[in-house]
Amino acid sequence: MLEKIIEFANMIFDPLIALGAAPMMFILLTIFALLMRVKVGRALEGGLKLAIALTGIGAVIDMLTGEFAPALEDFVLATGIELNITDVGWAPLATITWGSAYTLFFLLILVVINLVMLVINKTNTLDVDIFNFWHLSIIGLLVMYYSNNLLLATLLVTMLGVMKFINADAMKPTFNDLLDMPESNPTTTTHLNFMLNPVIMLFDKFFEKVLPFLDKYDFDAAWLNEKIGFWGSKFAIGIYLGAFVGILGQQSPQAIFSLAFIGGVSLELFSIVGTWFISAMEPISQGITDFMGKRLKGRKFNIGIDWPFVAARAEMWAAANIIAPIMLIIALFLPGNEILPLGGIIAIGLTPALLVVCRGKIMRMILIGAFMVPIFLWSGTAIAPFVTDTAASVGASPAGIEEGALITHSTLEGPVEKFLGILVGQAGEDFSIGPVLTALGAIAAYILLFIWYIRQMKKRNKVYKEEKENEAEAV
Amino acid sequence: MIKILAACGAGINSSHQIKTAIEEEMKKRGHKVQVDAVVIKDINEAMMKQYDIFTPISKTKFSFDITIPTVEAGPILYRMAAMADPVFDELESVIKKLNK
User: Fold this and answer.
1) Mean pLDDT across A281-289
2) Strands, E, within A342-399: which ranges?
3) Whole-prediction pTM value?
4) Degrees to nearest 5, angle at CA A177 with A173 and A179
5) What are phi and psi of B12, to 5 degrees?
6) C-alpha to C-alpha distance for A198 and A416, rounded to whole angstroms
7) CB–CB contact B9 A286 (8 Å)
8) Residues of A numbered 286-345 whose beta carbons fall under 8 angstroms of chain B's beta carbons: which are they?
9) Is the Cβ–Cβ distance between A187 and A356 less than 8 Å?
10) β-pair partners for B8
């Protein structure tokens, strides 16, 4: 049965795939938007923007890796430090993921799951952050990379999706507290980076019990951010790293400048191209929200948007700025790491979760963040072959560089989930007993930790509620 | 021309959604506006002074005082007209007061 479905799907998809990612996703996204009753013009606009974003991101990756690869080789020769994987940051990975037709499939599955959970009252969160569905899709794609098993991939994506919606509800009172939002404000987020909360909470409990005096050293984050100014901006970081690679790779002064400026311009261009493809998703996001809204009239919701509303808290940036140089040093000496941090060095895949769990206690955020860095680097290293292959299959692969050059994102959201994806994928390769038991064990541990975390959050939420009630009585 | 500064966390997703939505809606209502999207952490006092209105995604603290009118634009991201309209109404009334 499953084989027949796959055969049928292949019959339709093979000619589409043969067109290449950009034309394929232009056609598929436009059709998908039309199915969601988006107007023809808007649907076409979205499809076309996705196609140019895919093409654009490929061009920038080409430029960055093409320029950096030879210098990185010299860097390795000169220093003995093997950091061969180029860190391209989030935008290329998002684009590559949205270049796969399966992402639309996982999107559909997750929209259905969200709808079902809302109807049976297992969540209050309506997810309207359609763009970020790629975070779960990439985990599904990872399972398929190892096992070519769509069913397993769908099961894992479903499990993580369910947990994400539960987490979005659990975090809501903390957001109200951190951002001074009234109860009536429905903002929450379903972003994958907050699935790191359970691990961070383990560390946070440790700090609370063993090192509570640390909180006395908290400082004014807004002041620090202002002092750092443009020195912490994207282009500046690109310039430092280009110069860093050039100098340690013993390049000529001319080449050092060139690497510095290429680094700077690449980081700026990645986010510019990133905005194209976020606007490409605009019509379909609206279509899906309208579709869900119509079916759930009169229900009170939390609304899950992207994480940036928490960026109003200066601690998030202060922690990211301080963790960046720490990450560079860790990367140089961490066994098993092969990434030279570049595009992902400002760890916005990490600091929002730190902010939520530690509630702005900056010293804890920085210290726990430093402990999280290796998880991200190892995870980024582990997925590099998959990312590079997938980039090649959607036509965003670096051209004109050495065979074997790899790309990745050093601080990609969901590092733990990436390992789950790999383990599940390896188990699905031939279902031999060892890998299957490993995958099951890892999933069991993941779920247990999550349950513990949700209990902690419920305790926290009860305290928030009591505080509110006391305040109300006092008035 | 009213200049509006939209700000979000990464300067990539949310602030651009806010920018697009404000530009479209204000055009519909017959106001000429230009919206720039930036990362919250890149905002300094000098940058803020170049704008007439500030539309952050949520309540934001800076090390300096904000001297221009502020309209919180987060609800635009909910994608529901009933929730976004109050933001647009408030914005429109601020624009009218500025009378540029």
Assistant:
1) 82
2) none
3) 0.84
4) 115
5) -115, -55
6) 11
7) no
8) 286, 289-290, 293, 303, 305-314, 316-317
9) no
10) B39
Look over chain A and give the mean of its residue pLDDT values, rounded to a whole number: 86
Question: Is A225's CB within 8 Å of B74's CB?
Answer: no
Q: How many CB atoms lie within 10 A of CB A474?
A: 6
Beta bridge partners of B53: B4
**Contact between chains at A232 and B14 (C-beta distance less than 8 A):** no
Interface list for B 54-93 with A (CB within 8 A):
56-64, 74, 77-80, 83
Q: How far apart are CA A46 and CA A31, in angstroms?
A: 10
Question: What residues pair up with A415 in beta bridges, in sequence order?
Answer: none
Phi-psi region of A250 (alpha: psi -120 to 50; beta: other; left: phi over 0): left
Q: Chain-centre distance of CA B61, in angstroms?
A: 16
B8 touches chain A (CB under 8 A): yes
For the stretch A319-332, pLDDT in tens is 888 898 899 999 99
> Phi-psi category of A418—alpha, beta or left, where left has phi over 0 and alpha has psi -120 to 50?
alpha
Q: What would the DSSP string read from start to end of A326-350? A: HHHHHHHH-TT--EE--TT-S-TTT
Give the gap in angstroms from C-alpha B2 to the nearest C-alpha of chain A.
23
In contact, A282 and A28? CB cutoff 8 Å: no
pLDDT at A399 exceeding the cut of 60: no
Q: Do the Cβ atoms of B57 and A311 come within 8 Å? A: yes
Predicted-assembly ipTM surpassing the 0.85 threshold: no
Place of tokens 């019959």: A11
User: Which runs of consecutive H residues, i.e. helices, occur in B29-98?
Assistant: 45-49, 81-98
pLDDT of residue B100: 66
Would you say the C-alpha torsion A256, A261, A262, A268 has a positive or negative sign? positive
